Amino acid sequence: MAGSAALDVSRNGLVVRGGSRFLATGTDCSDDDSFFIYDCSKAEKKLQEDKGEEGKTMYRGSDNILASTFSRSGNYFALTDDNKRLILFSTKPWKCLSIRTVVRRCTSLTFTSTDEKILVADKSGDVYSFSVLAPYQDGKLELGHLSMLLDVAMSPDDRYILTADRDEKIRVSLFAAPHNIESFCLGHTEFVSRIFVVPNYPDLLLSTSGDCTLRLWEYKIGKELQCCHLNRLKNPEATPCEKVESQSPVFAVSRITYCCQENCIAILCDCIPVIYIFQLDDTKKQLTYKQQLTFNHRVWDIAFEETQGLWVLQECKEMPVLLYHLENGQWQSVSKNEVLKKISNNLHENWTMVEGSPGMDDSFSSLYKTTFDNMSNYLKKKEERVQQQLEKKKRRKNP
Q1: Burial class, 121, CB count within 10 angstroms (exposed 0-12 / middle 13-18 / buried 19+)
Q2: Which residues pair with 309 in a beta bridge?
Q3: What are phi and psi of 63, to 5 degrees?
Q4: Residue 284 has pLDDT above 90, yes or no
Q5: N or C: which end of the chain has fewer CB within 10 A?
Q6: Distance CA 157, CA 373 (A)
Q7: What is the 3-state composition of the chain as percent helix, strand, coil, each rounded to the nearest 5?
Q8: Cis ω on the peptide bond leading into residue 93 (within 30° of 0)?
Q9: How far is residue 8's CA from residue 70's CA, in Å, rounded to a whole number?
Q10: What pairs with residue 322 in β-bridges?
Q11: What phi-psi label fits residue 7: left (phi over 0), alpha (psi between -120 and 50 degrees) or beta?
Q12: If you average pLDDT over residues 136-155, what whole number do you get?
């Protein structure tokens, strides 16, 4: 996700990031048009041990932001960049609180529900925790996987830590003792790209994968409740989500976002300008496909905000941000909205920040399994060896 344009939303504001910079602004209807811009390339750097030519000390990596998130309260914001830094901010007012070093480049991060800790997952498969209350304290190793971690999440009561890796697994561990594994959620056939614990139904987990499925779990016991094949959805009438025998294209999901008021789930895929909308039936513990939103431009990211609706960040300078409200059971684009106008104007003036961002899909293309058919090559070489041996025998008999 290095350098990709992305969107983070909380009750205290909205953040749009691209490359090494991010822009933060409010989502209320106040007359305050001010915004906060931060550039990681101008932040404090720590010299790495690697030496370049002529023994000169070199920096490793760029300053591109790899992952970012708000705390549950919205009072804190954290990001990690390609230069192995974890940067923590307070949001009321916006202020950089600390810059710390992480061991490996990170793929995902989240806060505990109490806002006391930041959990950072990295490419080597480890999760470290960093204190929010002691903003300069070093990180503590919590758990590790044997493969790259792609996402990390916490249960709303902070009892469980959930981790998703490249090897198709979702692990549920006790946060107080992460070496105690509560369960595994197994069923995906490719890397698990995103996991999301449903806030108002804390026993349920949503997951997506490179196998192009959205799955619903009772994660504490590792039970799969439903599997939706996103690449086989044609229209909302084709519900519930069921397996189909036809061959379909495969793609990953780059974002899961959820609206508690409507029990709505929005899914953004990494290679097509489409958002899939689902409804969660908490009684039946099932997902129902409701709507498909299509766009003329590439969609970088999406996020629900309870008081406003569904925010959409797209690759369009004239209309960089779209806002959708629920009207008569359907999510409709809003054309006249003061908050939308304010955010769009701020982004338009700072378009160079996100212009040319590679997008989320570049991070997933290299994660798919590759298979090699060595048998045909082996048989061909074996046949050649047999023929060579036969030729040698003939020459010996008839020199």
Answers
A1: buried
A2: 305
A3: -105, 10
A4: yes
A5: C
A6: 48
A7: 15, 45, 45
A8: yes
A9: 7
A10: 312
A11: beta
A12: 96
CB atoms within 10 A of CB 1: 22
Say if residues 99 and 44 touch (Cβ distance below 8 Å).
Answer: yes
Angstrom distances, CA of residue 190 to CA of 193, 212, 226, 243, 359: 9, 9, 17, 17, 21
Task: Calculate mean pLDDT across residues 286-307.
Answer: 93
Indicate the burial class of 265 (C-beta count within 10 angstroms; 0-12, 13-18, 19 or more).
buried
Q: What is the mean pLDDT of residues 259-285?
A: 93
Reading the block at residue 115, the tokens are 């806002």
Burial readout 18-48 (b: 16 or more C-beta within 10 A, e: otherwise): bbbbbbbbbbeeeeeeebbebebeeeeeeee
* Total-model pTM: 0.86
> So what's the pLDDT on residue 336?
85
- Give the rounded distance of the alpha carbon of 8 from its chain centre: 11
| Structure confidence by residue, pLDDT tens digits, 49-108 | 444 445 554 556 678 999 999 999 999 999 999 999 999 999 999 999 999 999 999 999
Mean pLDDT, rounded, for 190-207: 96
The per-residue pLDDT for 60 is: 61
Q: Sorting pLDDT into bands at 50, 70 and 90, what band is 376?
A: confident
Could you tell me the two tokens for 7? Answer: 């969107």
